[in-house]
């Protein structure tokens, strides 16, 4: 039995966690073992790297440093958790993956998509999601939702035009790879979005 690798992408506050939880439940109800991972994080080492990346005090962080830190957290997650789970035939749902780096560091920070892929070729050992769901949301809506929740981390505290570039960057990525990336309207209801996700999942299972 082959594992299924799914990633969930979208701007901050787009409702990824809710959809991930619903999808996990769907897999379990259908007898498929399933794990959820989050980026940056998901292993002891990756969580430590996450602490550095999102620390609001590190305002001097160079964009290349940021890209490499995300890639290093990912490398550990891929080798320690994702590949072993897929090899055991499990389903893996990742809360963000390489597309986040392509959009946040490649497009919004301006490092370039090609640079991001070149570095991440090594970090991911060439493992790419079978399907990626993009929860597409106007940037202002996502940030307004986040502001109501908790204190913003280093990336969430970026100015509005950064978040606009992120939202636009995601659309650009989806247009580049329409076979893999399924763009969903995140302003729709939780149930409607979940139903669309299940339809796609059933078509690949
Ligand atoms: P997190 O608290 O996990 O945000 P969310 O709940 O929205 O997923 O913080 C992750 C932040 O890091 C988020 O602002 C997106 C950003 N990010 C990147 O810039 N590049 C990356 O490669 C990844 C995985 C995340």
Separation of the first and last Cα atoms? 11 Å
Helix content: 55-70%
Bound small molecules, which ones? thymidine-5'-diphosphate
Largest sheet: 5 strands, parallel
Structural class: alpha/beta
Shape: globular
What is the tally of beta strands? 5
Question: Mean pLDDT, as a whole number?
Answer: 94
The ordered string of helix (H) and strand (E) elements is EHEHHEHHEHHEH
- Give me the side-by-side strand order of the main sheet: 2-3-1-4-5
Please compute the radius of gyration using only Cα atoms. Answer: 16 Å
Proportion of residues in extended strands: 5-15%
Oligomer: single chain
Descriptive account of the structure:
This protein has 205 residues and is α/β, with parallel strands linked by helices. The longest helix has 25 residues, at 63-87. The chain starts with a strand and ends with a helix. It has a five-stranded parallel beta sheet, sandwiched between helices. It is built from eight helices and five strands; from the N terminus they run βαβααβααβααβα. The model has no long low-confidence stretch (mean pLDDT 94). α1 (16-29) packs across α8 and α3 packs across α5 (113-123). Helices cover 55% and strands 13% of the residues. Thymidine-5'-diphosphate binds next to α4. Thymidine-5'-diphosphate is lined by residues 12, 38-40, 70, 95-96, 100-101, 104-105, 153, 155-156.
């Amino acid at each position: 039995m082959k594992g299924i690798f799914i990633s969930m992408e979208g701007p901050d506050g787009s409702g990824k966690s809710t959809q991930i939880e619903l999808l996990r439940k769907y897999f379990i109800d259908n007898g498929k073992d399933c794990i959820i991972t989050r980026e940056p994080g998901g292993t002891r080492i990756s969580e430590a790297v996450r602490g550095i990346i999102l620390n609001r005090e590190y305002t001097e962080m160079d964009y290349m440093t940021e890209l490499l830190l995300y890639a290093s957290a990912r490398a550990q997650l891929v080798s320690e958790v994702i590949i072993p789970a897929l090899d055991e035939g499990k389903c893996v749902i990742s809360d963000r993956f390489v597309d986040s780096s392509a959009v946040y560091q490649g497009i919004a920070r301006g490092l370039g998509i090609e640079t991001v892929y070149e570095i991440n070729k090594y970090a991911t050992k060439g493992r790419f999601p079978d399907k990626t769901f993009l929860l597409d949301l106007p940037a202002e809506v996502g940030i307004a939702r986040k502001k109501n929740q908790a204190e913003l981390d280093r990336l969430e505290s970026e100015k509005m035009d950064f978040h606009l570039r992120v939202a636009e960057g995601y659309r650009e990525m989806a247009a580049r790879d329409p076979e893999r990336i399924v763009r969903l309207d995140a302003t729709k209801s939780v149930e409607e979005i979940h139903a669309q996700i299940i339809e796609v999942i059933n078509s690949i299972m």
